[in-house]
Amino acid sequence: MTRRAFSLIELVVVLAVIGILVGLLMPAVQSARAASQRAACQNALRQVGLAVHNFEAAHGRVPPAGKPGPGKPDRVLSWMALVLPYLDQEPLYRQALADCAAHPEPFSASTPAHAGFATPVKALTCPADGRLGVPHVFGEYPPAAYGSYLGVSLVNDGVRPSRLADGVFSDVPGIPLRAIRDGASNTVMVIERPPPDSFRAGWWYPDQTYNGPVGPNVTIVIAGEPTVVIRDDTCSVRTPFGPGRTDNPCDRFRVWSLHPGGANFLYADGGVRFHGYPFAALLIPASTIASGEAFTPPD
Q1: Which of 1, 95, 141, 227 has fewest C-beta within 10 Å?
Q2: Is the predicted pLDDT of residue 208 greater than 80, yes or no?
């Protein structure tokens, strides 16, 4: 019996069906990948929240975000570096203490960099950002490790520009969790913000929030629209929460993430929630620790 071959029309139909199936499958694969990365990022943030809580249990306060200065490590190291022992990074923390003793001045381009300055820490990076597994260089500075998160230090409601309310990460020596009178489950503690492609912001190790062209690094001021504008030599950026791009260096002042549609937020009770960009209208009352606003996080 003679075997019948495919006709050209049949082959075209089969290829068209395969193309349609692939076209239908790809969005589902991309959606599943995005959901997986978002969940992995939430797990990393939970580790950070647990580390902050363990630090507070041991020291009676959360790690501070004070002004850098010579002397004690909490004047040189960021709050992220101070919680290293609670992120299974005890050896790196001990090295940081030794480096602080040898070079107590805050890091600058003219002083030796600590070993931790160029050491990536997995728990401080969102898995959605594949750039952060290795150090990067900005300008004249030596190679540095970067993180995906910023602690909330101050809040400006945009109505009274001179009024700055406290966030969770305050000046030295830091606050106890009981000082969060608005409720730990109602107060945002850490936000997402990918470093820009220029890598002029996002150092996780030194306690230098903003240093000339570099920053914000470890904390952020949540500022309200429409009257409050953050400026530097090149940027005039309205905040606090909206879509951003890594190729726009000015978006380093904005709360945003690489996840579609919104970002993860770590609350002071250690819980992590994903909020869409309409949450921008609620971020001001969500970020203060004791301003008395009526606020309940959306599900």
Answers
A1: 1
A2: no
